[in-house]
Specification:
Elements lengths: L12 E4 L2 E5 L4 E4 L7 E3 L6 E3 L4 E4 L9 E3 L5 E4 L32 H9 L5 E2 L2 E2 H49 L14 H43 L5 E3 L2 E3 L10 E9 L4 E12 L1 H17 L6 H15 L6 E9 L4 E7 L6
Parallel strand pairs: 4-6, 5-7, 6-8
Antiparallel strand pairs: 1-2, 2-3, 9-10, 11-12, 13-14, 14-15, 15-16
Helix pairs in contact: 2-3, 3-4, 4-5
C-alpha cells in the first residue's frame, strides 16, 4: 500500500520503487512511459486514485465500498482482487488537454477457478474429502452433461426425422412424375410404418387400382367393339329395305334394346304368288339371344320351301329348335303365308302375341 504525503504541494513528485507520481494540485498523477512496468496500487475505501498513462494494477487488500479512479485517455487499468466489488461506476470522463467529455469503457474478467473456489466453500458439510459446495458443483456438472447428451440426441433424432420426411416426400414426388407420364405400375418404397408410410401404401394401392381399372376399361372397350361388330352382322341377317311384290308392299323396322338382341323377322318367298312372313323373338337379351337368332334364320330358311302351311311349318321348326335349344331358353314365333293371287293370308303362332 502506498503512503502518499498528506499535504503535498503542486508539482511535488512522490517516488516508490521504479514508479513515480506528480501532484497536480488536486490528485496524484502517475508518471512514466506507456510501455513501463505496471504500477501496482493498493487503494483503500474512499480513496481517490489517479491512473497514469502506463499500465496500472489495482490490488485492494479488502472489500471496497467506494473508490474514485481518474484515468487519462491512453491509460489502462486491471483490477486483480479477491474482494467483493459491489458496483462499478464510470463518470466525468474528460480529455485533459481540451476539457471535452469523452467516453470510457469497462470490462470485467472473471476467473472460473476463482468462482469455483468461492462456491466450493459455501458449507463445510460434505461427503468424505468433498465439501457441500464441491458436491453441488459436481451435481450441476452432471446435470449439464445430461442436458448436453439430451441436446445431442434430440439433434440426431431431428436429423433422422427430417431425412425420413424429405425422403418420403421425394418418393411421392417421383411417384407423381411416373403417374403423370402414364406409368401406373410404379410403386413407392415403404420405408417406415408411420403416417408417411401409410401415405406411400395408399399411393401404391391407388396406382394398383388405377392399373386394374385401366385394364378393365380396355377389356370393356374390346368387348364393346366386338358387340358392335356382332350388331352389324346381325343387322345384315335381317331383310333390308321394303319388299315389293305385285299387288303387295311390305316394310319392316327393328331397333334392338342392346347392341345384340334376339329380335328376328324375315320375308320368305315360297312361290311366285306366295310369300311367307315371319316374326320371332328369342327370350333374353345380349349375345346368347343373338346367336340363337342366327341359328333360327338358318332353320327357317331351310324349312320354308318344304312346308307351305303355317301350322306344319311351325311344328317342323319346333322339332329342330327344341333338339338344339337348352332348357332355360325359348323362342316365340308368328308365321303367315300371303297368297297374292287369292288375296288371302293364313297364319299360325307359337307363343307369340296375336296380330292386332
Amino acid at each position: 500500500m502506498l503512503d502518499f504525503p498528506s499535504s503535498p504541494t503542486v508539482g511535488q513528485i512522490f517516488t516508490s520503487g521504479s514508479a513515480s507520481w506528480r501532484f497536480d494540485g488536486t490528485k496524484w498523477q502517475a508518471q512514466g512511459a506507456a510501455d513501463a512496468a505496471p504500477t501496482v496500487l493498493a487503494p483503500t475505501t474512499g480513496q481517490t486514485v489517479a491512473i497514469g498513462t502506463g499500465k496500472t494494477v489495482l490490488n485492494p487488500a479488502g472489500a471496497l465500498a467506494a473508490l474514485t479512479l481518474t484515468l487519462p485517455a491512453s491509460g489502462s487499468l486491471r483490477v486483480s482482487t479477491r474482494a467483493r466489488i459491489a458496483a462499478l461506476s464510470i463518470s466525468g470522463t474528460v480529455d485533459w488537454a481540451t476539457g471535452e467529455p469523452e467516453s470510457a469503457s469497462a470490462g470485467i474478467v472473471i476467473n472460473t477457478f476463482e468462482v469455483f473456489d468461492r462456491i466450493s466453500v459455501v458449507s463445510p458439510v460434505g461427503l468424505g474429502q468433498y465439501n457441500f459446495g464441491q458436491l453441488l458443483l459436481f451435481v450441476l456438472a452432471l446435470v449439464g452433461g445430461l442436458f448436453l447428451i439430451i441436446q445431442f440426441v434430440a439433434v440426431a433424432i431431428g436429423f433422422v426425422l427430417a431425412k425420413q420426411v424429405t425422403g418420403a416426400v421425394h418418393d411421392l414426388f417421383t411417384g407423381t412424375l411416373h403417374v403423370r407420364a402414364g406409368d401406373f405400375g410404379h410403386q413407392i418404397p415403404v420405408r417406415a410404418r408411420d403416417q408417411l408410410g401409410e401415405l406411400a401404401e395408399s399411393f401404391n394401392l391407388m396406382t394398383g387400382e388405377v392399373t386394374t381399372l385401366l385394364g378393365e376399361m380396355a377389356e370393356k372397350g374390346r368387348l364393346e367393339q366386338e358387340m358392335f361388330a356382332a350388331r352389324e352382322i346381325q343387322q345384315k341377317l335381317l331383310p333390308t329395305g321394303p319388299l315389293r311384290v305385285t299387288g303387295l308392299a311390305v316394310s319392316a323396322f327393328c331397333e334392338p334394346a342392346r347392341e345384340v338382341a334376339g329380335d328376328y323377322y324375315d320375308f320368305l318367298p315360297i312361290t311366285d304368288s306366295m310369300l311367307g312372313l315371319l316374326i320371332a323373338d328369342v327370350a333374353g337379351k345380349g349375345l346368347a339371344a343373338g346367336l340363337y337368332m342366327a341359328q333360327l334364320k338358318v332353320i327357317v330358311q331351310s324349312l320354308s320351301r318344304l312346308h307351305h302351311e303355317p301350322r306344319e311349318f311351325l311344328m317342323a321348326v319346333n322339332k329342330v329348335v327344341s333338339a338344339n335349344l337348352d332348357g332355360k331358353s325359348f323362342i316365340t314365333m308368328l308365321y303367315g303365308v300371303i297368297d297374292v293371287e287369292r288375296r288371302e293370308m293364313t297364319f299360325a303362332r307359337a307363343g307369340h302375341c296375336p296380330l292386332g
